[in-house]
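Input (structure):
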């Protein structure tokens, strides 16, 4: 049996209006088309549903028996489709956004406050995860958008560049009148790090790998300490005078909470790309596109801000 909702709607319209002509007008079909639909319906249920004369159309006993069932089926269908539409609308108004802990704690709270003021009906759920877990969540469909650096091209993952950040030196803020290292400027040559004591991340951390590669390339071997797991812990250690750190400039919002100074490392300039990632092939909602645009403005603003 292959009965369509269109046939059930046609049956209900004729039963209610008592007229093939008015029923055809109501459901926007021709009268011959309506007659064909009902003829096929009668063939499938195995009985005549209407008595038709030149003056009137009335239900047969079989039609009377079928009428309450059809009404119930169409009412259930209407409730279901309305519910699905409501769920779809709600889904389009919420996004799960994942970021590394540094970004989740130092950048997103203020941005999220501003975004909610502009879009009060939107729910953005933030998750603080490491890069590996962000990618796993994206692949599993549990996370809509992920933020971070050092995301390599991968099957099933779509990357979109938000901003490019230079590598910077983070040092304890000098006492008033003492001047910054290397000429009190906002930039510093990599070679000036030779006399520093570097606080480091684990050797397999991509930020540390990038810094170590540059130091080797220049033949520099500053003293080292740490292998700290957490960038915010590193910044706190810098503030306390235990050494300096070489990090991407997206740490600037986190550094603003500490008495530290940032200088852009030059000669050469070394940069880090910062991405938003999503599941490849998954259709982006209008909300997701709006979020990406807003985040792009945010991170480009951070990247273009002068060191402090």
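Output (sequence):
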């Amino acid at each position: 049996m292959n009965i369509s909702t269109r046939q059930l709607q046609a049956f209900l319209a004729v039963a209610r209006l008592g007229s093939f002509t008015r029923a055809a007008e109501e459901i926007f079909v021709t009268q011959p088309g309506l007659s064909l639909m009902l003829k096929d319906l009668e063939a499938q249920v195995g009985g005549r549903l209407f008595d038709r004369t030149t003056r009137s159309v009335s239900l047969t006993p079989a039609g009377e028996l079928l009428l309450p069932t059809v009404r119930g089926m169409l009412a259930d269908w209407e409730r279901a489709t309305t519910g699905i539409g409501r769920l779809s609308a709600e889904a389009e108004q919420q996004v799960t956004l994942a970021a590394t802990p540094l970004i989740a704690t130092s950048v997103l709270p203020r941005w999220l406050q501003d975004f909610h003021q502009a879009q009060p009906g939107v729910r953005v759920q933030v998750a603080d995860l490491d890069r590996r877990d962000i990618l796993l969540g994206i692949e599993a469909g549990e996370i809509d958008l992920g933020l971070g650096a050092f995301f390599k091209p991968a099957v099933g993952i779509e990357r979109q560049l938000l901003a490019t950040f230079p590598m910077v030196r983070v040092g304890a803020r000098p006492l008033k009148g003492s001047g910054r290292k290397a000429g009190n400027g906002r930039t510093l040559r990599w070679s000036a790090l030779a006399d520093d004591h570097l606080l480091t991340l684990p050797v397999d951390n991509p930020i540390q790998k990038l810094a170590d590669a540059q130091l080797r390339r220049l033949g520099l071997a500053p003293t080292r300490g740490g292998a700290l797991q957490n960038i915010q812990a590193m910044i706190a250690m810098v503030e306390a005078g235990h050494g300096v750190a070489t990090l991407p400039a997206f740490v600037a919002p986190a550094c603003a909470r500490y008495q530290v100074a940032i200088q852009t490392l030059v000669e050469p300039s070394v940069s880090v790309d910062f991405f938003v990632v999503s599941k490849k092939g998954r259709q982006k909602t209008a909300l997701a596109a709006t979020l990406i645009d807003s985040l792009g403005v945010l991170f480009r603003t951070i990247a273009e801000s002068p060191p402090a």
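Notes: The radius of gyration is 33 Å. Residues 61-91 form the longest helix (31 residues).
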